[in-house]
Amino acid sequence: MPIIVKTDFDLLWLKILNTDIDNLPNWDKIKYKLKKKGEITIERGEYELNSEQVKVMDGESCIVMIRNKSKLNIIAYSNPETYFEYYPEVDELNSFVELLNLLKTEFDELKK
Known about the structure:
By secondary structure, the protein is an alpha+beta fold. The protein is 29% helix and 23% strand. The mean pLDDT is 89.
């Protein structure tokens, strides 16, 4: 069965590029952003920095390889949609989830 694109392919390509997927860094470069702002407390007369961080132990990982002219970008993100629920302010997650939603809209085969 052939894969059918709902939008003109040239338009779809521009929409894909508009997500900045060709510029996104790999997961390891953004992991530091996946925590809430820390709170400074005093414990036993010592200052401590405490912060909350969500760790997703199970789910989906996504690998994207994109080439635009001579530029190649290969990135892997771990559970981007789940982390996006907790950290919508992280631009890279926002762009990655935007790409996933675009692809799910365009390709029925990718819908769950």
